[in-house]
Amino acid sequence: MIGSFHLSPRLQSIANEVLRGTVVADVGIDHAYLPVWLLCEGIVSSAIGTDLREGPLERAKQTAVRYGVPNRISLRLCDGLSAISPEEAEYITIAGMGGETIANILEQAQWTKVGQHVLLLQPMSSQEDLRKYLTEHGYIIEKEILSREGDTIYLTLRVCAGKSAPYSLAEQWVGRQEQGMASPLRLSYLDQTIHRLSRALSGLSLAWQSQQKVREAEYRLALEGIKMLREEWIVWQR
After folding, report:
1. pTM to 2 decimals?
2. 100 burial class (0-12, 13-18, 19+ CB within 10 angstroms)?
């Protein structure tokens, strides 16, 4: 049965980062496709899954039973990482949530800053807020992986504990880039972010509140920085 079990590109981008022989804890487990696939492929020895609701945990249990690994995954009803001890897992995966929610989960689990864990984070929104939180609160973004499903480009962050060099406003929106880095979707990701910021600015330009004007100034600064990164990236690809 496992031969017909394939992960979606966005989940595969997370699975590719997990080291063989480790234990993974998946927060917001839903159907448990990621940890169950890792178990079936023999990449992890055991897994933990958490969720706030009973429904996703029941779906996760059904998936584990279907693929013959119910005794190797511990399913827990809890908020974020609150029911997980630091020594129980080496890898923490959090996907399918907004960047602010992911940041809040990490803020409530200060042990993730000690340095013993690899965090694989896939924010569905507010990527700039998550990058800002991580780089200013004791984490280093080691790697950014982009994957595509249809017209959507997904971002996966590989994160560890440590002191990060400050990120520019543009880098908070699109991450760091270095000459020679392999990222075939990078240009499309920059273009999509430029389009998103441009649309946001069009809406903000109609508002006159002081708070909105501050945000407009930040967006314009970020947009100019991203455009410079885009030109730099194009030059590097020649």
Report:
1. 0.94
2. middle
